[in-house]
User: Fold this.
Amino acid sequence: MIQWGFIGCGSVTEKKSGPAFGKVDGSKVVAVMRRNADKAKDYAQRHGIGKWYSDADELINDPEVTAVYVATPPDTHAQYAIAAMRAGKPVYVEKPMATTYEECQQMIAVSKETGVPCFVAYYRRSLPYFLRVKQLIDDGMLGDISTVQIRFAIPPYQTDYNRNALPWRVKKEIAGAGYFFDLASHQLDLLDFLFGPINHATGYSANIARLYDVEDTVSATFQFESDIAGSGSWSFVAPSGINVDRIEVVGTKGTLSFSTFSFDNIELETSEGVVAYMEENPENIQYYLIESIVNHLNGKGGAVVSDAVSGARTNWVMGQILGV
Assistant:
């Protein structure tokens, strides 16, 4: 039985991840931590968890906790993950893996030194929707892949307009960059899963609307080790009502388009016409990745598709694109 302790129990743990730890066979949550003790207590009581802490070290050193889920903002991912691994406890860390590629390398080094695994919450690698995308590509439905293009545009969030209370996701000292690190990390990690590592990336970023101090607009070009060429454009200050979320893959026999966040129909277009596919997500969207990690830790076999090595590659690519 894997007995989890959560460091951080904010909104991501309410539905996306938290309940899955109790639904997977051989897994349960025994403790949570939040710096605000009242909020930690409230979360624990609402979710039927027996212990709560306001100090991360106390949770890490709790003998009942055998594995740690780090669900804090990125600036503390490396700190908490390293402390947990040094305590001999496997870690599942939220994405992006850390604020910098250098921090990711430190986490990998400690994992190798201690022999304690570190996994990263790029759960799209395990969702049926993206496994369908991968199957169509691997089955040769597109022929030889030549290019991949990401297009993403959303209007500002309402909270972006309050300079005195900006969300942490646009504070570089906490997030590592802006919304690009938070959202594009999913897309770039997914492309790593589908096509293998990116070995060259460059980009241009700008702050067009000046709502905050980090980038709100990014364009990039990149190339995979397999020679597939890629490009992307991201705007986080699009007009109201605009929502563009599409990845298009072009091959010698057809094209494939799909979304990352809205889960629109997957569309395969070949000389024979257009075929649409759709897959359902689990109630708790991280369920399948968490299940694979728990099974792995319980010795039931099976590979875990998102670890520290792959997670670090995504940080490297984003760093190359932003020049940080």
